[in-house]
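Worked example 2:
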Amino acid sequence: MAVGWWRGRPRAAKLERLRLREEELLRRGLRLAGFVDVETTGLSTTYDEVVEFAIVLFAFDPATGAIAGVVDHYVGLRDPGRPIPPAATAVHGIRDADVRGRRLDLHRIRSLIDRAEFLVAHNARFDRGFVERLLPEVRGKRWHCSMNGVPWKQLGFRSKGLQNLLADHRIRVARAHRGLDDVLGALTLLASGEPGGHCYFKYIVDRDRAQLEAAGQKPSRTRGEAAAGTRRSRPGSRSSKGAAAPGNRLWRALTGLLKALLNPLRRPSRSHRL
């Protein structure tokens, strides 16, 4: 079984907090995605309510799927306006007293979602239903599922349930079935992989790329990427004059070569060479 290779001491669910500015991460070729987890009063995305919302914005390498670290996060409790059923409390441990009068910062959540290229959840169909009820305006965001988007059974694991996968990889979380703990646990899991192979998150990255290519689309510019582009192209900057653009470099090189051909006495300068 695949679980046999994962030996050693248990490790805490933890990711590096990246201190670089978002624009710098994007300039280095990293992309941003968001991992979401909601705790609720029940299983119905139509009738039940969210009592806890957690989202972690993280950076990843689109070529390898490697998760570089956490960029930002939000976690909050929400009063559902009704008693939390005992069966739900038995799962996540959230009681009526914990959420009384509490509200989510929807503006903050929207901001994080807007910065992400796509969203991920473990059993995304469940989380997505609740998120889109809370925030109908984010229905256009792409979603991926870490439960069904990685071939856990083919890789030899007994279950694709998050808690079982965490146990198989000896990843500890402080409180199972709590928003932020589950998100950090899932991201620590996705950052893992078999010896000599790629990390699990690459399955999701490849799936996202395949879906975009099938639809004839390219990755959309997130708000952070748009901001980075604006800073690079501000008036008077080097990039605004075209110095950093490969197409402009090629044009200048070709122009220089053409001038050299028209003027035999002039040799092409080094700056005109490709």
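Residues 238-272 form one domain. Residues 93 and 178 are 8 Å apart (CA to CA).
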